[in-house]
Amino acid sequence: MTPPPDSPFDVSADAPATAAERFPFQFARTRRFSLGVPGQFTVSPDGERVLFVRTTSGTDPVSRLWLYENGAERLLADPLGPDFADGAPGGVPPEELARRERARVTSSGVVSYATDASARLVAFALQGVLWVLSTDGGPPRRVATAGPVVDPRPSPDGSLIAYVSGGALRTVRQDGTGERLLAGPDGEYVTYGLSDYVSQESIGRSRGYWWSPRGDALLVARVDTAKVRRRYIADPSDPERPPRVVAYPAAGTANAKVSLHLLRVSGERIDVHLPGEAGETHPEGVWTDRAFEYVVAAGWDDHGPLVSVQTRDQRSVHVLEVDEVTGSTLTAHRTHDPAWVALRPGTPLRLASGGLVVPARPGGDTQGLDIGGATTPPGLEVREVIGTADGRVFFTASEEPTEIHVWSYAVGDPTGSPVRVSSTPGVHTAAVGGPTSVLDSRTPHGRTVTVLRAGVPTGSIAVLAEEPLVVPRPLALSLGKRELRSRLYLPSWHRPGNGALPVLLSPYAGHGMQVVLEVRAWWAAVAQWFAEQGFAVLVTDGRGTPGRGEAWEKSVHGDRLTAVLEDQIDALHAAAAQHPDLDLTRVAMRGWSFSGYLAAAAVLRHPEVFHAAVAGAAPADRRLYDTHWEERFLGHPDVQPANYTRNSLLDEAAALSRPLMLVHGLADDNVAVAHTLRLSAALLAAGRPHTVLPLSGAGHLVGQERTASGLLLLERDFLRKSLGL
Asked: Domains in the chain, ordered, with CATH?
């Protein structure tokens, strides 16, 4: 069914431009509505100042640095302003570009920064040039360095700035004097102070060095990728450009060797003695690897350095206290799991008393916290630890999986219980310092940033993002025997009983991400846009997604497809039972990354249910994905090859009988384009027609405006043609 001619969403060629017609271009121009959204909040320890980055509008792609103080915002650094006229003409260093790709940064300019302990001195890099400024006033000052700068960080007292250049860790004074090399590469493939690929992409550890509270030493990661296999990412549209080399550890191959070192600013170096492997309490499995290959978290507080390491098979995590004099380590906490130990962002955290904040199982299936010996209550599913301030530990958690709230717990109160800070239904997080909390809220009505002092709202930070031209209007559903959380998007012009609607499933459905949430997010706007094109769009979070307990999340262990596809099919049939206008003879699925993989699997394995699919950046050959992510679910490919065969789509190519469009960015260094090319080759060899759409210059996140907008339109046209719409 197509929109009626008099519909406000008429997209016929003769109609004037409508909101639905303009939406793809708005979606691309606003970088998925991310421009104009404040982020990376830092609250000073006294709670008086809040630093953040934000562009000046919903279409401005250049981030600036801002300060919120005394109820008002003040611009601190504008990369396009006169203060930066003498900036270096060079480009962003490749290490910084890699960091931005891992973090899915969509803007340029001041995209990251760091401060001293009091949040008065700020350091950041622009085009590899080091800049510092004082929040007390005055223009930014350029600091001369030995080379292009990556990840500059002031010492706690602000006297020194540490930075990485050419894989070496260096320090310099604010005025550009006293330049000093702390640790230089001692091999062709060695870096100091940077995070390796797997730690950034799959573990979530983006940093590679940490200052001591006294500012006299640093805890530094040394990364040696000599044994890691190389990938070469070329741009076929520019054959004269040399390929980009990426040290990428695919499943079953060698990881980067990561070691830690204590470097005194005086020049002394002490090696940290990390344990080699887990002991007898480590759970056994079909494949067991006790070696501690992953440094999953690190930091340095008043009690000394604190480090977490994980085994190669991911079934043990040890929290280590490091002696800063000798480099020896003492195991302060151990966690084991027969499937994998789930890493909770923000942990471990050490309290002022020395007690630890670590993941815990408080009862039932809940994933909670142990806060210095006190456990969060069952039923409160903890997502992330935010930090400590004003005698309280702040964290995010869910009682209902479609909502995430900020909670706080008063340290040392044995009779107390966590208190919810956020109240409005939605997804909330925060930054804290002293008595001040910055509450970043996404709700069904949009996004707000509220500044609270002692829990009382005292102001707000402006969100300048554009309003979507197509406003999501989902129906909240809980479907089937597993009460699958779902959202159904119907055309605004559709009325029950006035015609059957083809169904488009648009989930993510993979580990680590939810899309069925009480928020007006970009993916909800896209789902509504597809609905306005004549589809009933169903989005479902099934087994393997976060927020519903450990067993739910780990039900995909050993098999990443069967249960996930079953949940999508169950949700489809349950939704159709409630809404008879859903036409089960015309069903498609679209997706990107894991959901692209799922979409391709849907038409290969269940052509009786799914009649077309668009699969973007689909990791079709699981052996090509990285060690930490893939071995978590499927084990080692040499020991458990059947898991990889069962989860690969290549051997199923001959089963294709439905229209399938494969889309992939040729510059994607996360899911290599080899996945799509191998699947296409297998389909071709089997004589199965299909469509391949290569995106020149695009990475895993498609950022080019014309490409991103054009892709939505091409997907729509392919799906409408395939389903006879």
From this structure: 19-29+474-723 (3.40.50.1820), 35-184 (2.120.10.30)
